[in-house]
Known about the structure:
The structure is a single chain. The chain contains 4 helices and 8 strands; from the N terminus they run αβαβββαβαβββ. The protein is α/β, with parallel strands linked by helices and 141 residues long. The chain has one domain: 2,3-Dihydroxybiphenyl 1,2-Dioxygenase, domain 1 (Roll). Strands 1-4-3-2 form a 4-stranded mixed beta sheet, with helices on one face. Strands 5-8-7-6 form a 4-stranded mixed beta sheet, covered by helices on one side.
Amino acid sequence: MRAFFYYVLLTLVSQAVFAQKSSIELVHLKLNQDEAKMAEIREFYKGVLGLKLVSPEGAIKRDYLEFDNGQRLNLIYVSKERVPDQRAFMNGMWIRLETTDFNTLVEKVMASGVPIVKEVTGKELYFQAPGGQVWRMVKKE
């Protein structure tokens, strides 16, 4: 219940901020991921979503993945005990992706075999990436 409350609060605050045409934008997001799944997680974000690996040289158990617009996703590989469980991911923060290549990306995500949380044909796709994070992908107009 607490997670839901924070989700609603975050949604309301972000809607209020963005409705004001603020210059704020997300430029970096950190997620703890299970170190035992590092190869699978890395392959999904690079191979399926097409993110560019820009980790600093010598980075151990850490991936910096960059979107086309320069925003970054920082994956920290930690012991399983430090990673939220699947229920926490489902009830926690869901992240929205916008893409102009929606249909192609939907096909790639579906073919990858990750769990599909919800599909609204032709408009949006909710999926759970390896490691547990839930993403909402929408077509960018």
